[in-house]
Automatic annotation (TrEMBL):
SUPFAM superfamilies: P-loop containing nucleoside triphosphate hydrolases. One of its GO terms (molecular function) is ATP binding. Belongs to the adenylate kinase family. It is an enzyme of class 2 (transferase). It comes from Escallonia rubra. This is adenylate kinase. One of its GO terms (biological process) is 'de novo' pyrimidine nucleobase biosynthetic process. PROSITE patterns: ADENYLATE_KINASE. It catalyses: UMP + ATP = UDP + ADP. InterPro entries: Adenylat/UMP-CMP_kin, Adenylat_kinase_CS, P-loop_NTPase, UMP_CMP_kinase.
Length: 244
């Protein structure tokens, strides 16, 4: 199933050698690090008049997506858009969708894709940045297809934090963020949704050669050292070839 998932465990060293290693690992550079490819004719989103560089960040609940996104923001200047945070913000605004979103999150289920994609689109369009981490999205095939229809562009790369289930449960139960869904019953449902709906999407990107699988175990620093080469390679490419 994970035939084409790229492992970063051997991807270390300077930006230039990181680039070479990533290429050996099967990542399609021309596509992944170009801002021009796979944009629909309509070119629907373009902050600052440029096509943005989009990274999807996937992994189960507690796999470290949010923590690592914060590190990428700090080191490489990306804007972090967490689909979960956008939905929680929508609940706090008391808009018409708020109650539906809250109930869906409480049940650990997936909010209708149009709702989530519109929030992501609005956040991208209102940003002055042109490089984004979209965390916790797409959660299912319907999310993925709706994003492509509304945004008109596939992601440039997809990170997947791979972490054993017991470790993820331990992290979620100990993080104390006051979330309505960080309880054992909802976590069980979220893990079920992850396996049945999210893994097929992850596999889809693996088949397309866009997925970078990262070992999500260890300390925050250890995991970030596995993430760093991806963005060092991107920065090298953008500096030397003028892409996003
Ligand atoms: O990613 P995070 O753990 O913050 O997501 C919390 C919840 O938000 C999910 O369990 C799900 O109910 C909802 N969500 C969603 N669609 C997404 C991302 C999150 O419905 N793409
Ligand atoms: Mg999160």
């Amino acid at each position: 199933m994970w035939r084409r998932v790229t492992s970063l465990s051997t991807v270390i060293g300077s930006s230039k050698s990181s680039l070479l290693n990533l290429r050996q690992a099967g990542v399609n550079f021309r596509e992944a690090f170009s801002s021009d490819v796979q944009t629909s004719a309509e070119g629907r989103i373009s902050p600052k008049g440029k096509t943005p560089f989009i990274t999807f960040v996937l992994g189960g609940p507690g796999s470290g997506k949010g923590t690592q996104c914060a590190r990428i923001v700090e080191t490489f200047g990306f804007t972090h858009l967490s689909a979960g945070d956008l939905l929680r913000h929508e609940i706090s605004l008391n808009r018409e969708n708020g109650a539906m979103i809250l109930n869906t999150i409480k049940e650990g289920k997936i909010v209708p894709s149009e709702v989530t994609v519109k929030l992501i689109k609005r956040a991208i369009e209102s940003s002055v940045n042109d490089k984004f981490l979209i965390d916790g999205f797409p959660r299912c095939e319907e999310n993925r297809v709706t994003y492509e229809r509304i945004i008109g562009k596939e992601p440039n790369i997809v990170l997947f934090f791979d972490c054993p289930q017991e470790e993820m449960v331990k992290r979620v139960l100990s993080r104390n963020q006051g979330r309505v869904d960080d309880n054992i019953d909802t976590i069980k449902e979220r893990l079920k949704v992850f396996k049945t709906l999210n893994l097929p999407v992850i596999n889809y990107y693996a088949e397309k050669g866009k997925l970078l699988k990262i070992n999500g175990t260890g300390t925050e620093d250890e995991i970030f050292e596995r993430v760093r080469p991806v963005f060092s390679a991107w920065r090298y490419r953008s500096k030397h070839f003028g892409l996003v």
